[in-house]
Amino acid sequence: MATRTMTALMKACEDLRDGTAAEGVLGVAPTYVAAPATVAEASEVMRVAAERGLTVIPRGGETRLDWGRPPAGCDLLIDTVRLDRIIEHAAGDLVVKVEAGLTMERLAEPLAEQGQQLALDTPLPGSTVGGTLATAAAGPRRLLYGSGRDLLIGVTIVRADGTIAKSGGKVVKNVAGYDLGKLLTGSYGTLGLIVEAAFRLHPVPDAQAYITRTVADPAGAHQAVQAVLHSAVVPSAIEVDAPAGGPITVAVLIEGVTESMPPRGAEVARLLAADAAVLPDPPPWWGRYPDDSTLVEVTAPPTALTEVLALTAGDTTPAGVSARGSAGSGNWQVGVPAETPPAEVAALLARLRTALTPHRGGAVVRYAPEAVRDEIDFWGPVPALSLMRGVKDQFDPAHRLSPGRFVGGI
Fold this sequence. Notes:
The protein has helices at about 1-10, 40-50, 105-115, 130-135, 140-145, 150, 180-185, 220-230, 260-270, 305-310, 340-355, 370-375, 385-395, and strands spanning about 15-20, 30-35, 55-60, 75-80, 85-90, 95-100, 115, 150-160, 165-170, 195-200, 200-205, 205-215, 235-240, 250-255, 275-280, 295-300, 320-325, 330-335, 360-365. With about 400 residues, the chain is an alpha+beta fold. The strands form 4 sheets. It has an 8-stranded antiparallel beta sheet. The protein has a 5-stranded antiparallel beta sheet with strand order 5-6-10-8-9. The longest helix has 15 residues, at about 340-355. It is globular and about 70 Å long. Residues about 170-180 have low confidence and may be disordered.
């Protein structure tokens, strides 16, 4: 049976080989690895996988392949490395259409030559377009430009049975079927294989400036963030860094024409305080995840900043916990050291979720070491879980795509 399955897969995809333990997804090794070079080839290999009842997991740049829970199975790992073309760059329309295996860095280069950008920060180098969408990853500038879900105007996927499905278009005003893009963004590969995406672009600003200030406590950070948010400055990002045992730093990014930088920078410095510094380059921590093992993503309105920072630096907080993220848009990352006992990680998660409930916020574990995984609830309460399960049943009736990776075991 194994030989017949491999023969069928090889007919569908020229680049097919046996999987190895080193390619395992959180310890679950793939039986086969396929790297389709075209959308048609991806469709055919997915069709064969469906016929054979194989579980399938997509792989991009492997920068976030260890996010979420381990899969229930991995018969076939589909590597998108060969799906790496820029299909079309309509510079006049500020739109680009690309294949999912293209890295964000390689995409940025030709766009910059035309004075344009996909304003979607990716904290991990080597991230692919597909992986960035599948995990809903974004960075500091989501405050001004939005996330991948906001910038995506069209998407092509291969469904579980091999059918190619498209939604949206390659012009900004065409939003027909845009909900498919929203469904796929952040779905962890559980609804389909993303193979192409079209995005709206923005001009590269003439100049940037970073204004930073160290504050005494969480209340000071909240006051500084709110002052900038409620001003007429229009920042591109407002970030906060709260390292374990260290001072809290607030940093603001402004972008625009060169002539506007001095007065706008001075105004942000005035809002933050007299000792704020205006710098041409970002601080070293800007746009990076905390440097720890368990990574928790917190989402809540910016008004929850005081509670988030207080909980990550309080007397009951495990030693070494740090927090960092987009205070302006209400997206933070909490890093918990690897040596923290699982019970303490679970207790911290519970306290975060309780504190965020009045704000209608949440705390989701993106990555956790093996010793912690079985002791924690990765996702927390999910009111829409029954609806999400219904969507999963419609897109993947046999539950073969990234099984068990997502919320509720989807």
